[in-house]
Amino acid sequence: MQEWVKEGTNYWENEECPREYLENALKGLIHFIEDIHVDDELVRNMSDEELKNKIDFYEYVADK
After folding, report:
1. pLDDT tens-digit profile, the chain (64 residues)
2. CA-CA distance, 61 to 64, in Å (whole number)?
3. How buried is 13 (Cβ within 10 angstroms: 0-12 exposed, 13-18 middle, 19+ buried)?
């Protein structure tokens, strides 16, 4: 288990969650839900806020 994980906190809302983890999570979520691959550069160029908002959306969709 990663040291930055906090019980009861979504990983994308945790300020200690590494950016690389967030980027990989978003790419995985999009692939799972939409069955498409997202360009690494596109995700890398997103602001932290945009990245976290997209993860929040795709996590919500994945839970449905």
Report:
1. 688 888 889 999 999 999 999 999 999 999 999 999 999 999 999 999 999 999 999 999 998 8
2. 5
3. exposed
DSSP line for 10-30: -GGG-TTS-HHHHHHHHHHHH
Rounded Cα–Cα distance for residues 55 and 61 (Å): 10
Cα 46 from chain centroid (whole Å): 11
pTM of the model: 0.90
Beta-carbon contacts of 37 under 8 Å, excluding residues fewer than 6 positions away, are 27, 31
Q: Where do the domains of the chain lie? A: 11-63
Using alpha carbons, select from 40, 62, 48, 60 the residue that is nearest to residue 17.
48
